[in-house]
């Protein structure tokens, strides 16, 4: 007697630009491993939300979009941002609308060093670099607090305020998440990144919470580093990093730097997690919509495919997640690389190489 197949209901939101191209590649790979396993399948529902939808409706997603998404097992997201729609309108209207309202407070961004990919780091070949940026994803500098026209004095004298919000609860949960995550990794070490010498309220609170929580994890090494020093360390002395935890803005910047150092932003996957599982979590490549290459079939699908692996892990299919990771490694090791990595392969050729590596 065969066991019933588990069906995962996934909302796919390609969004803008290359989002559709990379998500199509990722879905092919996910459907392939599901069919291979025979134990589960995906039921995809695609939503055409994004900047074109905005052009038609004045909204990036429908007013009841969150209600629609709420019952899915996960969200697979492409990219957001397109010329003609101000970036803050598209970002807040779609991606941040979802992450904030579904309390996806932990953004996990592995920095993926792959065989066959040339890194600008001098030491990249000498050390098996492996670090993960854990980004606070609900408050900090992206709390959406502030205002414009505060002086009331009109053009030329405008005053704007952008407030960063740090709550003890928000700091503590992401810092605990980082320590718990470090415990699952070969190198049990957490570096906390702030700019608390200059940002003397919120980031000092963050540092204090970090010192307190660190005492509960004597088996995990910990250190506090200023963001400017950490940026230099990413480039000059990255070999002793494991988990790097930082506020919304700092981690956003550091994870882009990390993936550029790993060879390309196109490689970087991410998971926006609601760890309590009250809401669906969202999986997306770190890169944006890349209008300059959209529609040309040459964008790198690896960030999206690897985000699919993170989604599988979240859904309890870690064996298949690892299979995808290995297939990606075989693909880059074989030199099947898109132009951002110095190669000539198309998006489809990379996806096909990953499928071939997975076998039939
Ligand atoms: N797939 C990620 C994406 O579309 N990012 C666009 C962006 O500007 N994101 C800003 C952020 O990560 O907060």
UniProtKB/TrEMBL annotation:
Q: Which reaction is recorded as catalysed by this protein? A: (R)-malate + NAD(+) = pyruvate + CO2 + NADH
Report the enzyme's class at the first EC level.
Answer: oxidoreductase
Q: What EC number(s) does its UniProt record assign?
A: 1.1.1.83
Which PROSITE patterns does this chain map to? IDH_IMDH (PS00470)
The UniProt entry, under InterPro entries, shows:
ICDH/IPMDH (IPR050501), IsoCit/isopropylmalate_DH_CS (IPR019818), IsoPropMal-DH-like_dom (IPR024084), TTC_DH (IPR011829)
Indicate whether Signal appears among the record's keywords.
no
Q: Recite the UniProt keywords alphabetically.
A: Manganese, Metal-binding, NAD, Oxidoreductase
Q: Which family does it belong to?
A: Belongs to the isocitrate and isopropylmalate dehydrogenases family.
**Secretion signal, residue range per the UniProt entry:** none
Q: Is the keyword Cytoplasm in the record?
A: no
Protein name, entry field: D-malate dehydrogenase (decarboxylating)
Residues annotated as domain Isopropylmalate dehydrogenase-like? 9-354
Gene3D superfamilies, per this entry? Isopropylmalate Dehydrogenase
Q: Name one Pfam family in it.
A: Iso_dh
Required cofactor(s): Mg(2+); Mn(2+)
What GO terms are given for molecular function? tartrate dehydrogenase activity
């Amino acid at each position: 007697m065969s066991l019933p197949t588990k069906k995962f209901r996934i909302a796919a939101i390609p969004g803008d630009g290359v989002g559709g191209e990379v998500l199509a590649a990722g879905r092919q790979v996910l459907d392939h491993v599901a069919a291979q396993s025979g134990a589960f399948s995906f039921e995809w529902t695609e939503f055409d939300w994004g900047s074109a939808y905005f052009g038609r409706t004045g909204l990036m997603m429908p007013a009841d979009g969150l209600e629609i998404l709420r019952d899915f097992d996960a969200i697979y997201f492409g990219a957001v941002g397109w010329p003609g729609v101000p970036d803050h309108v598209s970002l807040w209207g779609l991606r941040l609308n979802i992450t904030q309202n579904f309390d996806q407070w932990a953004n996990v961004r592995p920095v993926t060093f792959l065989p066959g990919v040339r890194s600008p780091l001098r030491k990249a070949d000498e050390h098996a670099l492996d670090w993960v940026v854990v980004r606070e994803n609900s408050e900090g500098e992206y709390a959406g607090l502030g205002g414009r026209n505060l002086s009331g004095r009109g053009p030329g004298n405008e005053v704007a305020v952008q407030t960063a919000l740090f709550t003890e609860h928000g700091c503590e949960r992401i810092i605990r998440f980082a320590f718990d995550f470090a415990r699952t990794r070969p190198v049990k070490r957490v570096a906390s990144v702030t700019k608390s010498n200059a940002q003397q309220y919120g980031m000092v609170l963050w540092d204090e919470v970090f010192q307190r929580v660190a005492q509960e994890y004597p088996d995990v090494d910990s250190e506090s580093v200023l963001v400017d020093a950490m940026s230099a360390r990413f480039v000059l002395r990255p070999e002793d990093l494991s988990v790097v935890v930082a506020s919304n803005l700092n981690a956003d910047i550091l994870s882009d730097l990390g993936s550029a150092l790993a060879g390309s932003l196109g490689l970087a996957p991410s998971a926006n997690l609601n760890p309590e599982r009250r809401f669906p979590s969202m999986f997306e490549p770190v890169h944006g919509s890349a209008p300059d290459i959209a529609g040309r079939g040459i964008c790198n699908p690896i960030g999206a495919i690897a985000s699919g692996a993170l989604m599988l892990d979240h859904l309890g299919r870690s064996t298949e997640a690892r299979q995808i990771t290995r297939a990606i490694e075989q693909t880059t090791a074989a030199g099947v690389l898109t132009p951002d990595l110095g190669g000539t392969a198309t998006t489809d050729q990379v996806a096909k190489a990953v499928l071939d590596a997975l076998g039939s």
